Amino acid sequence: MGNGIKLDVSGEEVVAQLLHLATFSDDPNPAVTRxxxxxxxxxxxxxxxxxxxxxxxxxxxxPMGNIFGRWEGSNVSTGAVVTGSHADAIPLAGAYDGTLxxxxxxxxxxxxxxxxxxxxxxxxxxMFTSEEPTRFGLGCIGSxxxxxxxxxxxxxEKLDVNGTSFQAASTAAGYGGASHQEILEGTRIKEGAxxxxxxxxxxxxxxxxxxxxxxGIVTAIAAPAALRVFFSGDGGHAGxxxxxxxxxxxxxxAEVALAVEAAVLxxxxxxxxxxxxxxxxxxxxxxSVPREAKLEIDIRDINKDRRDAIVxxxxxxxxxxxxxxxxxxxVEIINQDAPAICSDKVIAAATEAAEALGGxxxxxxxxxxxxxxxxxxxxxxxxIFIPCRGxxxxxxxxxxxxxxxxxGVKALALTLAKLAGSAGDxxxxxxxx
Amino acid sequence: MGNGIKLDVSGEEVVAQLLHLATFSDDPNPAVTRxxxxxxxxxxxxxxxxxxxxxxxxxxxxPMGNIFGRWEGSNVSTGAVVTGSHADAIPLAGAYDGTLxxxxxxxxxxxxxxxxxxxxxxxxxxMFTSEEPTRFGLGCIGSxxxxxxxxxxxxxEKLDVNGTSFQAASTAAGYGGASHQEILEGTRIKEGAxxxxxxxxxxxxxxxxxxxxxxGIVTAIAAPAALRVFFSGDGGHAGxxxxxxxxxxxxxxAEVALAVEAAVLxxxxxxxxxxxxxxxxxxxxxxSVPREAKLEIDIRDINKDRRDAIVxxxxxxxxxxxxxxxxxxxVEIINQDAPAICSDKVIAAATEAAEALGGxxxxxxxxxxxxxxxxxxxxxxxxIFIPCRGxxxxxxxxxxxxxxxxxGVKALALTLAKLAGSAGDxxxxxxxx
Lengths: 433, 433
Fold this sequence. Notes:
Two copies of one chain form a homodimer. By secondary structure, the first copy, chain A, is of the alpha/beta class. In chain A, strand 2 and strand 3 (67-71) form a beta hairpin. Chain A has two domains: 11-222 and 339-432, 3-Layer(aba) Sandwich (Aminopeptidase); 224-336, Alpha-Beta Plaits (2-Layer Sandwich), CATH 3.30.70.360. Chain A contains 13 helices and 15 strands. In chain A, the strands form three sheets. In chain A, strands 2, 3, 4, 6, 7, 8, 13, 14 and 15 form a nine-stranded mixed sheet that branches. The first copy, chain A, has a four-stranded antiparallel sheet with strand order 10-11-9-12, covered by helices on one side. The first copy, chain A, is globular, with a radius of gyration of 23 Å. At the A-B interface, strand 5, helix 9, strand 10 and strand 11 of A face strand 5, helix 9, strand 10 and strand 11 of B.
């Protein structure tokens, strides 16, 4: 590589740290379940801060619980180059999603330091709060807060299953504040404070592995939308209530789940995906006609207009099914975000890094939802992907090889070095951003 | 009525007892949730035994927890005339289903006693154990056991969600025995011990109310079948896993739920009903492609061959959907019982009772599942229905009016008197059975 940095990274050591982090789980490993601000999430935060401290990073935490570990640069007046991801995990997930982008950067920074590199701009390793929507029904809470893309009113509405607010849960965890407004004000990133953001992540898709490509450099992040649909009918006894007198909320829901799939397939676009990930009925006993149904539907595309057309088609089906089946209905738009286009400068830095490492790489789209989506709202942003087995994620058997992890950490280190510039080069990369 | 019995029954008093029984519930009233052998089920049993004792009935309980309250007859060597129903309730059910057939008979017997009637055959008021399938996934456990229609091997398989067996749960509740075999041997009714069985119940359908008919006399009980269907796919991330690579267990389940409805409607028979009452997917989070799905399906008809054809059609759809969607599948037949034809003698006795009361009545089919289905396997059996509001049952707003309840209890009392015969008439009704 141009700046001649010689990196010493142990993929095996990073894997050992990821597997230790995985032990903080509500379900037995290999499954990982780690819900924001629960006991295991707090234990995981403690471990991440230990690793940050051991790497010489100076720790700061914001009111939302986003954790920053700073490596000071020679130029104290410039914005930081930030890298990070999340450590929360949906129920029965695996050990690599998100966590690689938290543990990997600590190893990258340590390797840069060992190589004698000193950054001009500060480098922050960042662990985001609640990228997963499990607890509060909204993903990327920490990065939305940093980007100023959340309102107190919206957070007020998002209670967990026990009726606990983000304010109460974050405050109980030692973060938080007196109100959502106060928490948001303390979290939002000041203009110019972040010069660039880059996130290291497993692909969560099968393309790199299938093609034998070693690194993916992300050019865009698909636009996610999530809907919640409720149906209610009158229920009744499964034996006694004759078919003409029924208004079965469960069958209305079944029709909508199938309509989501049909609306996506109708576009003919490989980049469009739609999923009914949550499907619940009540009273949910074999001898009762379903009286209530609740669906949560996830629709994404790199093309916002096409994504919005799918959402509109699903909403129309909900109306049509409700009318035909004589069930009451209600729809909540959980989120309907715009896609993100990655920064040319970050793409160029990551490409240079990949080329310096000498392996194969390709440009690609991220179809999964990341904190990068919201970081891109206020900072030049990019992502680096490594292959994962079978394209699997959000499963206990999620896996990335130590060799791929090692290459990913090295690519991230060189990208950070390029973006931050060297302390010895005051006219370096920084001004390009 | 021929034998000139003058009955004094207070519908309001029976309602007050039903509403007191309803307070033994895991959910706040008006909802009633009472699962067999839980604390509230045991409290309800205690209350029923108090009422039985107050009516002068001699209490006996069998190893399955079926409770008998006996009014001795003048002829101690003849089989008993038995009447009863159940007091367990599915989650979020109401105060009348089953319970009317437990509380009502106690009031009927008390009224007969007050009227100076003395039975020739003994009369047993019976509360059955676990008519609802909620806890062990099998309905009518008590009456199946009495009929000798259960095997120890089947009971061994039926564990509750915590892995507790019927043997363990019944023994912990003060019933039970060393093994399912021992429990079954102690429960089975000896030949000739039951001369007739009659069950008082709310209709659980809308016909009596719609037509303004006061009493229903049941001629047949529809044949129930229940299936459990499991699908499993490979799951994956809702954003990253492209549509062509998915095998979504939730969508397979949605197709089957709709196919159950379609198969029933295709028969064109008003008596055929099919319900997917339980629908669960895993991991059940918005951003995961469903990896697992479980359905419980209830199919009933008064025509066994037509019912079996619907079951076969659903099983075929399960195979077809699993193959097309590349998901794994497994089916369990929970039960597939034969319909019951009611006894002419019991129908005649109930009809005579209805006519003596002077109101309207009609013959009808029971489309709901009752312990009567299994009592009919070894004893002449019949049922008396009263109207219920909207045909609703298995709902918190389940309701029958005090006037309809009073009439039902009186009809039951006269039917019991006819079937048991009078102590003064040793050549009476009994020999007709």
